[in-house]
Amino acid sequence: MAEHMSMDELRSSRANRPDFDADEYNAGREEARLAIEFANAIRERRLELGLTQTQLAQRAGLRQPDVSRLESGGGTPTIGMLERLAHALELKFVARFEKNDAA
Questions:
Q1: Global pTM?
Q2: How far is 60 from 86, CA to CA, in rounded Å?
Q3: CATH label of the domain that carries residue 32
Q4: Can you give the three-state secondary structure of the chain, one letter per residue?
Q5: Grouped pLDDT means (10 residues each) for the chain, 103 residues
């Protein structure tokens, strides 16, 4: 039976490969972190309002699987979808760019 590696072991083994690109890896991790943060915000607000995924979907003009996908960190919502979700969650949608502290 094959042994399973811990996440630290897996990261270390990937980092030692000759084709490993640290910048690409870190960009992917940051993108995943943002998706999870966004997913958690949607789910937490939906639960605060006492809504099911189906109810949120109906309010936002989406399908329940779309809401499920977003709440699991999958998919990339469009600006229009973000606006509809914000309205359905009784929130204001704000998008902006900010300077990095390092810039």
A1: 0.72
A2: 8
A3: 1.10.260.40
A4: CCCCCCHHHHHHHHHCCCCCCHHHHHHHHHHHHHHHHHHHHHHHHHHHCCCCHHHHHHHHCCCHHHHHHHHCCCCCCCHHHHHHHHHHCCCCCCCCCCCCCCC
A5: 76 78 81 90 97 98 96 90 96 92 69
**Domain of 37, in residue numbers:** 21-88
Residue labelled with tokens 């943002």: 34
Locus of tokens 């940051």 = 30
Q: If we measure between CA atoms, which residue out of 36, 37, 50, 63 comes closest to residue 89? A: 50
How many Å is the maximal CA-CA distance in the chain? 52
Whether residue 6 lies inside any domain: the answer is no
Query: CA-CA distance, 63 to 85, in Å (whole number)?
Result: 12
Query: What is the residue whose two structure tokens read 């690109």?
Result: 21
How many structural domains does the chain have?
A: 1
